[in-house]
Amino acid sequence: MSLIKTRRSVRAYKSEPVPSQALDAVLEAGTYAPTGGGHQSPTIIAITDPKYRREIAKLNAEVMGSNTDPYYGAPVVILVLADGSASTYVEDGSCVLENMMLAAHALGLGTVWVHREREIFDSESGKDLLREWKLPETLRGVGAIALGYPAQEAGQPAARKQNYIVRI
User: Fold this and answer.
1) By CB count within 10 A, which of 30, 84, 134, 165 is most buried?
2) What per-residue confidence (pLDDT) applies to 64?
3) Of 75, 122, 86, 80, nearest to 100 (Cα)?
4) pLDDT, mean of residues 100-116
5) For the chain, what percentages of helix, strand and coil (3-state, to nearest 5) are there?
6) Rounded to 10 degrees, what is the CA torsion of 115, 118, 123, 127?
7) What is the DSSP string of 36-101?
8) Is the pLDDT of residue 137 over 90?
C-alpha cells in the first residue's frame, strides 16, 4: 500500500541513464500484469536509443500540435502496444503500465503515464516504425511511460474525493 500511496507522476528527469538491471526489473514487472483470459496481448517496447527516442517524441508532439517533449526529458520511453484484435487490449495494456510504474517507484525511479500512442501507431508513420522494428502492424497503442531519475521532489497527493468509494 505504501508504494501505491506514494507514487507520483514525474514531469522532470535527470539525463542520467537508467541502469540496465533496473530497466530489466521494470520491464519484467510489466510481464506479470493480469490480462484478459491470460492471453498476454500487450507488447512492451523499451526505447533507449536516442534516434528512436527523438522520433517517438516528435510523433507524439505532432499529435498534440506541439513541439515540446511529451516525455519530459526522460532517458527511457516504454511503449505499451497490444494486439488490437483482443477484446481487452486497452485493459491489458493499462495493467502492464501500472505494474511498471509501481516497480519503477520501488526502485527509486520516476514515471509518468503518457498518452497518444494509439494515434501514433494508427498513423502511417507509426506503421513504418512497427515494420522497421519487425512488429505486427495489428498492434495498437495503449500508452507509454517516461522513465528515469526524478529531477525534483514529487508533490503531495491531492486529497481523495468525497464518495470515491460507494458500499452497497
Assistant:
1) 30
2) 93
3) 80
4) 97
5) 40, 20, 40
6) 110
7) GGG---EEEEEE--HHHHHHHHHHHHHHHT--S-TTTT-SEEEEEEEETTSTTHHHHHHHHHHHHH
8) yes
